[in-house]
Amino acid sequence: MNSLGFTGRLSTWSAHHHWVVIAAWIIGLVAISAVSSATGSNLTTDISFTSAPDSQVARELLEDARGGTEQFWEQVVVQSDTLTVDDPEFQTFVTDLTAAIRGTDQAVDPQNVFNFYEAPEEIKATLVSDDRHTTIIPSLLDGGLDEATKNVVALEDTLHQFNGESGSGFLVVTGGFASVNQAFTEAAEADLGAEFKALPVALLILIAVFGAAVAALLPMILAFVAIGITFGLIAVISQVFEMSFFVTNVMTMIGLAVGIDYALFVIARYREERRHGRGKYEAIGIAGDTGARAVLFSGLTVVIALFGMFVVPTSIFQSFAVGASAVVLVTILQSVTLLPAVLSIVGDRINSLSVPVLGRTKTTEEEDRGFWASTARFVMANPWPMMLGSAALLIVLAIPYFSISLGASGTASLPAEFDARKAFDILDEKFSAGLIQPTDIVIQADDVNDLSVQAAIADLQAALAADERYSLVNSVETFPDRNDLAVVQVAVPGESASDEAISAMKFIRSDIVPAAFEGVDADVYVGGPTAGNSDFFDVVDQFTPWVFAFVLGFSFVLLTLIFRSLVVPVKSIIMNLLSVGASYGVVVAIFQWGWLADPLGFTQVESIEAWLPLFMFTILFGLSMDYHIFLLSRIRERFDETHDNTESVAFGLRRTANIITGAAAIMVAVFSGFALGDMPMFQQIGLGLAVSVFLDATIVRTILVPATMRLLGDRNWWMPSWLNWLPDLRVEREPASREASPAGAGGD
Questions:
Q1: Could you tell me which CATH number the domain at 1-40+194-355 has?
Q2: Which of 172, 226, 309, 661 has the lowest tally of Cβ within 10 angstroms?
């Protein structure tokens, strides 16, 4: 026991002081829950930049001019199948509806609500459709984005009283940045529950792996504890660091996956050591020194990969990095403290409620003759065809990725039952979808009332009006207490993330604005959601190579220190890239090309989420290392004992394949549950992660890794002597510490 490493000693200490450890975790959970309940979660659907692209500058200028907040307009749509705006009944209905909107308590600015019948002649035409069966009532919400998103709910409650469902005969819905954000929030909350649908499947998999209900339930309980604590941590962190609302979805998904898997690794090693005659505390110590140590290093690899997202200067990537990293770190801490404490109390009752056949303990001889032993022998006997065939399969699956089109899920991706989606469809058909999220052209000058600046603004408006792609939203906005700023709002065609909208916005930036303001002493910034999306896509493109370099570089260093080899990390990186590339290809083939999308219940889209490849890379590269470290640590452990590479690879494969397959099946179930939601972005995340984990655990870890290690032989462990000064962080235990003790030794 003296040869135990840090994780083994900590696990042993936790086992001997189990009630202290469990009490500390309970106190921690209650305390963080109390603090988070008192402070509340300060989560936002807003996405901001920590750099300064044009859209961010325009936004900050407008916020400053408007007293520290933004303006969010809603376009209330009124439509009748039989009446037109010229009919008295239509006018009466719109007049009554306008009065009700203005009276919506503290939700809208009554001075900035107007309709077709009250509007000046110059803008009347913009408020009615060509067939005159539809009109819009622009309404300004109170507050910034988060306040406006809440206020729009009150507005929608008012509108529901006038909707056709109440017998009015009119369709009344609203569309705007706030209502769209609120709809996305509701859809995300609904999809948050979708991943829990996979938990019964995950439980069945655990029962199949362990053969006992108690052993199967323990990892799930620990995963929920980790998620609960992390929810509290996120609530506290969000008070000082802007966090995206969607971090809860990502954190829950990652928490379920790694929480269950990490506990599975440790419990499996504990049970194995007990079967081999170790005493309870010695088995816990060895499990902590091997399984929990593998969890520590693989978890740190996950965290390193996740922190690669911090390189990207946007709040959403940084929120994902914080939330996912937090739940992984909490899970790691659980694995070396709380889990050993619980195991010391449960003891051999971990095998209680065993399942017939599945729960029968296999002898070492049976393990060496089972399915995975046969698989290992077959792969070892045929390394070349196994390596070439598996690599070719992954490369073929990756081919669709080279036709990927990156974009963002706009309003059209919302489920059809949402009013914001209905409003978008009507505006897109009858007016301009850009009215939902107008583009802001912000003019900054010493004096916007200067004749040259005024002439340039007039030229700008004339150029926009002359181009049929654009619709001016209202007259030039100025600010009474300052004369250095003016704003022109224009609706661009299509939804804010579409190629059509971004192309039209870029034309304003590159052609219309420079032509109108040539020779004029003024700075012009084009902002708004479309400009923000365009800048976001550019930022992702710019920083993706840096994220890849960060993740691959740090992973290479960590794997070198863990396995004392330069060959293993290079090979690991190549194989992980193959599995990630294959998952990219499957996502493109299904969601962008539409292959099997309908039968599988997925939504075909024109573009894959721009942030998805980068997000998937950081998540998958980290998670795939879990299995890689778990497998290679057993191979290295055996190699240090026997110095027989081929036998060590076969041993490691047959001893870990069952656990890796079970762990991967759990992750696939959790991620597939995430894909059951209605939002295309979550469908893409869930399917992409599920496919990659499946390929990683089957093709890569079961075939490609063993085959390449068989071919490389002892060269797998090559480390130049001039690097011997590097610290030794190996996961496997020293050979001298593996001598079996008599059954029951170490305490029961």
A1: 1.20.1640.10
A2: 661
